[in-house]
Amino acid sequence: MSASDRSNLRAVNLPADWSPTSWRERTALQLPTYPDQAELESALAELRHLPPLVTSWEILSLKQQLAEAQEGKRFLLQGGDCAESFDQCSSDVISNRLKVLLQMSLVLVHGMRKPVVRVGRFAGQYAKPRSADTETIDGVTLPSYRGDMVNGPAFTEVARKPDPRRMIKAHARSSMTMNFVRALIDGGFADLHHPEYWNLSWVGHSPLADEYRRMVNAIGDAVRFMETLSGAEVHNLNRVDFYTSHEALLLPYEESLTRQVPRHWGHFNLSTHYPWIGMRTAAVDGAHAEYFRGIRNPIALKVGPSVTPDQLLRTIDLLNPEDEPGRLTFIHRMGASTVADKLPPLLDAMRRDGRRVLWVCDPMHGNTESTSNGYKTRRFRNIRAEIEQSFELHAAAGTRLGGVHLELTGEDVTECLGGARELTESDLERAYRSTVDPRLNYEQALEVAMLIVRKQAQIAAPA
Ligand code: PEP
Ligand code: CO
After folding, report:
1. Residue-wise pLDDT tens digits, 120-140
2. Hey, what's the signal peptide range on this chain (predicted)?
3. Is residue 245 part of a domain?
4. Residue span of the structural domain in which 325 resides
5. Mean pLDDT score of the chain, rounded to an integer?
6. Annotated binding residue 437
């Protein structure tokens, strides 16, 4: 019996003094101030009655897959929008994002020769941390936009007022997204016999698309060969597992979807499979860490350049005291120019102390900059450099990079600079649509998958 099977059967360690509401005793950063408490309470009461978005069974099977990623037997691909928006909850946006993630995972599986854990940053990615509580334009000061789950992006008093009913709408939009993704996957959308289902209509000629098509043809030949040989259709190629994740920032919402279930001990956050703690709310004595310590989901934590080895060790003591495999992921997001300085001391301390987590690189959030024409952007070469350096730094430290965390979209956007099409600052005007952070478009995302494969092969077999 595996360790995770055993831990399902008994409450090995119900966290002491924890309840879904115990975070309320701690300092909670980045939460909105709702003007009307009665409205807030009534929205939360309604949420507590609504069905969950995921099940404990799915959560535990993801935890098992992450445990395998931690051991190097799988690779994690986690990606999606910086922030979902209510307006963008549409058939095209959802299916295009799924197409990109499926194409990327195909490239990774084919190149790395290991299964990929597929996790979307969607179906709940509606709350955002901000660097300031307010925003001032032309002498007018209003609350900052904190994601569609909290308020609206328009710079008006009405839009910016935190509205608790938005949590109900976020739950509904998340469940519509989940429902469509599940229906697509169950209906055979991810079938390897038909990778043409994942082609994006807007993609014209692209050198990367040619390379990708060659790979797809090779896989198609291999599938047909196996089928001819065995005289039967290979069936397990038409299904994949797809999991969801979001930053569990808005704790009142997360609390209302934290439930006990009949056949498993403990509490689960049933709003998503794999919640993470953002960099700004990662304090070990803060409300977010307190909430996360008690749920049984696999959880992740963003690790920025100011985190010390000691803080990281204390975080593990709190969030994974039993060293449960697959329980804890550290997503480092240092920036291409600082990762070589900041990451090795953390990796060394963890290895010295015999601590195990799944290490993942987010090459997006440490590489954000502003252009002279006022766009928030990221340069592809920095994203690439942070991923490549991360592989090398882990190899040198005797640890393992087990996945990537990316902001991307299947829409035809121009938000990040560079890549195969060499997007320049003047291209940003053409299709900059993100309300928060700049995302990789299809070509840039596929290029990331290809560079991961090349880098990993190089690390595995140094010249
Ligand atoms: C994000 O993932 O969108 C984000 C805000 O990241 P971080 O917490 O790492 O800054
Ligand atoms: Co972001």
Report:
1. 999 999 999 999 999 999 999
2. none
3. yes
4. 38-119+178-460
5. 91
6. yes
| CATH number of the domain residue 316 falls in | 3.20.20.70
Domain count, the chain: 1
279 CA distance to ligand 1 middle (Å):
6
Instruction: Report residue 218's pLDDT band, with 50, 70 and 90 as the boundaries.
Output: confident
Q: Is residue 17 part of a domain?
A: no
Ligand with smallest separation from the Cα of 278? 1
Q: Lowest mean pLDDT: which of 286-295, 308-317, 318-327, 440-449?
A: 440-449
Which atom of ligand 1 is nearest to 129's Cα?
5
State the pLDDT confidence band at 15, using cuts at 50, 70 and 90: confident
Q: What is the DSSP string of 122-159?
A: -SS------S-SEEEETTEEEEPP--TTT--SSSSHHH
Mean pLDDT (whole number) for 314-330: 97
> Residue 279: inside a domain, yes or no?
yes
Q: What angle do CA 59, 290, 58 make, to 5 degrees?
A: 5
Contacts for 409 with CB less than 8 Å, ≥ 6 apart: 80, 81, 93, 96, 97, 100, 439, 440, 441, 442
Atom of ligand 1 nearest to the CA of 282: 8
71 annotated as a binding-site residue? no
Residue nearest to atom 9 of ligand 1 (CA): 279
- At 1 the pLDDT is 46
Measured from the CB, is residue 111 less than 6 Å from ligand 1? no
Is the CB of 278 inside a 6 Å radius of any atom of ligand 1? yes
